[in-house]
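seq as requested:
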Amino acid sequence: MTSVLLIVDMQNVFTSMTTNCLPNILRLSTHFKSHSLPRIFTQHGHTKEELTPPYKNQLVRKWGPSGSIAKGTSDWELMPDIAPLAAENDNPIIHKNTYDAFINTNLAEVLEEKKIERVVVCGVMTDCCCDTTARSAFDRGYETWLVEDACGTANKKQHETGLNGFGFAFGEVLKTEDVVQRLQ
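struct tokens:
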């Protein structure tokens, strides 16, 4: 079964949420690379048009323009530990403007082109973009794993809520070590 590591929104704006998960994301990335398995990165952001009234993007309506990530800003950029990984071997970066990395993007086409059957999701935020994208992958027929110690969010309660909901009805919630062992 062909697997992909989907590294979600590891951007400067979320640095404070990545203290515990970043080492595991780096370990997973190294493992996938050493086994010649693909890695795909997502980057969340909004255009000037989306941040200008009237707001057509639902997330901008929810969080307001000051609470949204503007494309091209330092907050929007991939974190220093992640940016070089995304640049290796022309790994795809999926630019998105909503929680679900499949909406308004070419992610489905990229997965189809790579003949992916399993999506392994890590990154931030556990209960928003990671969970939503993982559920969407499941709904599209992919076996989907959400890596609990390679995801981060604002607090422990939100993290556990995202993991529990996904694990109950969608796919497996695994630790980094479990993923590495299963993909030997």
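Strands lie at 3-8, 39-44, 93-96, 118-124, 143-152, 172-174.
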